[in-house]
User: Fold this.
Amino acid sequence: MFIEHLSLTNFRNYRHLDLELPPHVVVIQGDNTQGKTNLLEAIHFLATTKSPRASSDRELISQIALQEGQAVSRLLAKVHKAKSDIEIETVLKTERREPLPNGEEVALTVQKQIKVNGILRRVPELMGQVNVVMFTAQDIDLITGAPALRRRYLDLINSQLDARYLRLLQRYHRVLSQRNHLLRLISEHRAHPDQLEFWDKELVESGSYLQDRRQHIVTALRGLAYLIHWELSGGMEKLEIIYLPSIGEKGESHGQIKAEFWKALHQAREKEIDQGMSLVGPHRDDLGFEINEIDMSAYGSRSQQRTIALSLKLAEAKYINDQTGDQPVLLLDDVLSELDQRRRHHLLEFISPFQQVLITTTDLDRLEPWFLSQATQFRVNQGNIERV
Assistant:
């Protein structure tokens, strides 16, 4: 799988871009703030409808276009796949500001429209059509940041590969919101605890599947990441990825997870009512990372934490390839800046066989000559890209 053509209009600092991309290794060089990361972000957004760094779709639209009034951002990619080529288009359109009676303007909202081969599609129908794996400097937060980041990471992988997972994930969060609302009413004596039975059943049905699939993928990633990390560290470090479910023990079957979920809900009932929120379920899961049996979130060096995050992403790429038969597009943003020479060498050797790798850098000297010799090079400057 590889991106053949990318077209951007009013996306970040790209007013207009039409770019033909070759397969294999693509090196994108440029100074900071010129648009290297924005380019990779656009591809990730087209494949997943999610930005790895924006909190809202509004942030993706060119600031110049927003200042001009009603703005439209358009992203389009033509993708070559083993079985059939595909075209994906996403349009972000701002709604016109309507003044409030007091004269204030309401917040600008953004509508999102997705088309696959010219046909309107919903998000679940897009997921999995094009698979990408993106590494950014912020991915070190997967090791050191909040548990929500690690849960979101597992959800994104599973959602690309399993349409049922995405549907049940969306349902789980709807049920969780309704259940939390009911718990608050009960804590205020405005509802009866018996009303929880329906929402408990819904929470268990969707949540047990999420935990089962998360457990499955962590097991797969653990083995793959161990080998990749061993290579990247020159055989010096043994990586262990640990799934930390909020319910039961890791390694349980789907049926066991369901039974443990019911048990945990009953045990937590009084405390949940007292606090007015759901305290058990996949929304409380986490991951742990150890090297040579030492907790890396607390005691790992920045270089070790960065290598773990990179190993995890490369394991993800290998896993997607194993599951789909298509290599995902690998997007590596400034991946070399904090790696020592040995780890850089092992990384470049690992990624060079991929069907398409887009790697950004400010300094070509960080890339070894043999790697550059097989790469197609582009230079980006203020939202303009030209082939070198």
